[in-house]
Amino acid sequence: MRYQISGKQIEIGEALQVHVRTELDAIIEKYAMRPTFGSVVFSRNAHEFVCEATIHLSTGLNATAKGSAVEIYAAFDNCAARMEKQIRRYKRRLKDHHRLRSEPVELLDASSYILASDADGETGSAEPETLQPIIVAEMETKIPSLSVGEAVMQMELAGAPVLVFRNESKNGVNVVYRRDDGNIGWIDP
Question: For this UniProt entry, which residues form the secretion signal (predicted)?
């Protein structure tokens, strides 16, 4: 598996990189997953170190975890423990969903935009001059082609509040999201 281990404004030593590779390889081997790429980013938040890890699986799904601690090794260990718990929890579901899938998840290209927020910070206080939002950034993103169950699982694995996907059974763009009451919502236009 390929790894990208980096730090945001902190130096990452060779010993930590070896530790990260060894631990993640052990987790992946234990659950017999098929990873293609792993990304681990270390940063600092006040007095704590923060570790964010993402593992891309060959099925098209991603597992994401985050951990923090006063020491950098402990931050990674917390992150690795959460990653292992996620993968263990969803191992059966991953196997069940992908047993019938003979090919990897298809990804469609799409544009993603970041819109400028209200400049004065007040919402609804004044009428906007124009209804056209200001685009701050434009990026390319991928939309996976999944079943609804796989989309919910991907959203939970990634820890995301919402996931846009192409429904395999209907070939339409759908959305799953976490509701305020803790349930999952599904938009099928």
Answer: none
174 contacts 188 by C-beta, under 8 angstroms: yes
pTM of the predicted protein model: 0.62
CATH number of the domain to which 36 belongs: 3.30.160.100
Single residue among 70, 99, 128 that ends a domain in this structure: 99
3-class SS of residue 182: coil
Mean pLDDT by 10 residues, the chain (189 residues): 88 91 86 77 92 82 88 94 83 60 64 65 59 76 83 82 87 88 86
Identity (one letter) of the amino acid at 80? A
Contact 43, 10 (CB under 8 A): yes
Instruction: Map tokens 């990653």 to a residue.
Output: 83
- 3-class SS of residue 169: coil
